Amino acid sequence: xxEDRFRGRLGTALTWAVLLLGLWLWGRAVTxxxxxxxxxxxxxxxxLGAAAPARLPPxxxxxPAALPQRIDIPRLGVQAxxxxxxxxxxxxxxxxxxxxxxxxGWYGAGTRPGASGTALMVGHLDTETRPAVFHGLRTLTPxxxxxxxxxxxxxxxxxxxxxxxxxxxxxxxxQAYAPRVxxxxxxxxxxxxxxxxxxxYTANVVVSAYLTGSxx
Length: 216
Description:
single chain; alpha+beta; Sortase, Chain: A; 8-stranded mixed beta barrel; 2 helices; about 35% strand; disordered N terminus
């Protein structure tokens, strides 16, 4: 039993390490960005000045597992197809192709959105010439709605509870990606952030949301 528990913890640690390495490598893959897309703030954007809603809704019971097909973020005007992505030859999660800046990638070996656990979705911040699907991610505030259309016909509704810009130096993967409340269905939306230096962004924008309802 102790050996099995150790293996489980080791596997979890390795998963977070692979995801962290992959996100760092993904940020380094960008070669040029417009000056106006650079953001220098790091930390909890909610704490840095965004007003909190009076009360966030209670969490809903997790849904049965089903594949994500589309993500909608009404406040940003985002309606984007979702594709499953794996790991590339370097051990990094594969983001959507750069010639598909309007597509969102879901880490297909992980939790399915709406099921118990933390589902991870990644999207590009920009291309060499224009903003991409998650360009406005850092402007979300607690209380914003994110909807995920699933293969079983259900639409999972998530409520944003936090937005952080986390520097890659000293990055705490567990703080960013581990479930905030065990047993909940949670969602993380991830893109690049911070400054663009030496061919790479210096931070990740991480939006944390949790399931608060569903239709269908």
